[in-house]
Amino acid sequence: MNDLAFSGASGIIIMLFYGFLMLLIGFITYWKNKGLHQSNKEFYLGGGNLSVFVLFFTFFATQYSGNTIVGYAPTAYRMGFFWMQSITFFILIVIGYLIFAPRLYVLSKRYQFITPSDYIQKRFQSKGVTLLASILMLYGLCNFMLEQIIAIGHGVSGLTGGTIPYQAAVLFFVSVMVIYGWLGGMRSVAYTDTMQGIALLVGVVILLIGSMVYFGGLPSAVEYTATVSPEKLGVPDSTGLVSWFSMLFLVMIGAAIYPHAIQRIFAAKSEKSLKKSLSWMAWMPFVTSGFVFIIGIIGIQAFPGLSEGESEQLVGMMANHIAMQNSFFYWAMVILFGGIVAAIISTADSVLLTLSSIISKDIYATHINKHANEQKQILVGKITGVVFVVILMLIAWYPPATLYRIFILKFELLIQIAPAFILGLYWKRLHRHAVFIGMLAGTIIASIMVFSGLQPLGVASGLWGLAVNFVLCIVLSYVMKDSKTEVEWLRKGIS
Amino acid sequence: MKQKKEPIKNWRIWVVLIVLFVLSVPWYLPTGSYEPFILGVPYWAWIILGVSLAISIVLTYILKHHWHMTDEEELWEEEEEQ
Q1: Would you say residue B2 lies in a domain?
Q2: A444 in a domain, yes or no?
Q3: Does any CB of chain A come closer than 8 Å to the CB of residue B60?
């Protein structure tokens, strides 16, 4: 990667341009919504008033990150057609929502939920369960954030072949994100998500066109793959199939139950806008992860024989090569570059906002200072959020080699709150002690399995933890008795 | 006022979705096979893509016709805004 198409100047220009645009959106939001910082609902949920278009893009930005391009194309490169699962699992997230969102939306409007823990507290009336869930979410979100921070650095330095150093990119964009997040809360996050989502979509389409024009289309890449590594084309064996099923299931439940995804259900303006944005989401995988999959396969022919570490730079190499062809593609790749970075930031900002809201409401206002007004709660959330970000940046300063492993780690933990939602919303008998024990046991089992690298039968460790979690919830609930008043609100709230 | 509909309570939806979920992984095809190529792509990739499309179509249908939980309160709010 010596002959770089992206000299430092254009890389820096586009970086500054996107950063400036995001800050501008933050400032405009701030000026237009002066009362924003007085109320949790205004700051963290945009007043619970997001309309279809904005809601769709903020869902989109939450689920699809820059990693969907920078990380998934190399995965397709290494795994071949096995990675078609990335199209299906993004569609399945909508099924995940279908399991709990309709009822949770109604409850959230009735009881004014701000964070996922608000629901858990209301349903189980137990500080223990709520605190455990909040800590799990915080931990998962921190990992998530860490992944995004690393992705910003990888994305920028990869796309410029190291012209812009990893650390400089991280520092600049994280600062921009924190500032516009502070200024406008959920509103500026959602508005920047819209801008960032459009940039990502445009970028993917142009990269696909560019790689088809300059590296040959999918058929020629497939023909080439058949001669050099036919195993990338074949139907996977039984181990592969099990891991495919396990990945589908993990993402279906895990990604829908992301705390920041749940908060977007609360932020919807109406049921109609929620339904509409989710149905748009059901079609996005074809043009995002689907296109990226094709790009990765084309990469097999374009840059054969890359090692695992080298392949992580695949998108940067392809973009550089395409950019050198003519000035149209040069600027198109510059847009792509901005789109990828924007997509990473748009995921990170959602995570940061949810992180702050959990600290504000579920930790600070519930356990530390019960008499704090909402303005103070928001301030504490903001400041603690920044402290977390700084710590994560220190960890991310020297990044781990591949993105795939840390991506799995957050799911394993976040998914453990699923029974509290999926069972808790429908099964009145579900007992708070059972939820607590299930959640704790699931977390411990999943963590031990992750750290020792255990994946019995090829099924992801998080799913084993979740299975134990579900079984404990059900069995213990039959053993324990719940008082009638505790679940009365649920009956009244729904029927 | 429309009748209230909650997707989770409609077992037919879940039968269809579970069948599609199971079909979306190519366990029913011979291991390692990739020929014939159709339009230059392994045949089974088209099957998986087809099943994925079917899931999206079914989901769009469900979201439109089988999810109706809130009553006129919300509609009224929307009208007021207009």
Answers
A1: no
A2: no
A3: yes
Question: Which residue of A lies nearest to B78 if distances are taken between CA atoms?
Answer: A270
CB contact under 8 A, B39 and A91: no
Number of compact structural domains in chain B: 1
pLDDT at A199 over 90: no
Residue A409 pLDDT:
66
pLDDT at A486 over 80: no
Contact state of A279 with B63 under an 8 Å Cβ cutoff: yes
> Is residue A278 one of the residues assigned to a domain?
yes
Q: What is the pLDDT of residues A390-426, one digit of tens each?
A: 888 887 777 665 554 554 567 788 889 999 999 888 8
Q: Which chain A residues contact residue B55 at CB under 8 A?
A: 88, 91-92, 95, 282
Query: For residue A460, is it within any domain?
Result: no
Residue type, B62: I
User: Is residue A234 in some structural domain?
Assistant: yes
User: Residue A495: which pLDDT band, with cuts at 50, 70 and 90?
Assistant: very low
DSSP class of residue B69?
-
* Predicted ipTM > 0.95: no
For residue range A350-365, what is the model confidence (pLDDT) as tens digits?
Answer: 888 888 888 888 888 8
What is the domain range of residue B36?
7-81
What integer is the mean pLDDT of A315-330? 85
pLDDT at residue A3 is higher than 50: no
Reply yes or no on whether the pLDDT at A114 is more than 70: yes
Size of chain A in residues: 495
Structural domain boundaries, residue A373: 8-405
What's the distance, CA A219 to chain centroid? 32
Q: What is the pLDDT of residue A405?
A: 55
What is the rounded distance in angstroms from the CA atom of residue A50 to the CA atom of residue A108?
14
The pTM (predicted TM-score) of the whole model is 0.88
Could you give the percent of chain A with pLDDT greater than 70? 93
- Give B5's DSSP letter: B
Residues of A in contact with B68 (CB under 8 A): 271
Q: Is A255's pLDDT higher than 80?
A: yes
Tell me if B45 and A231 make a contact (CB, 8 A cut-off): no
| In contact, B66 and B7? CB cutoff 8 Å | yes
Q: Would you tell me the crossing angle of helices A314-323 and A327-357 to the nearest 10 degrees?
A: 150
Cβ distance A103 to B62 less than 8 Å, yes or no, reads no
The tally of domains found in chain A comes to 1
For the four alpha carbons of B7, B9, B10 and B13, in that order, the dihedral sign comes to positive
- B24 inside domain: yes
Output the domain CATH number for residue A151.
Answer: 1.20.1730.10
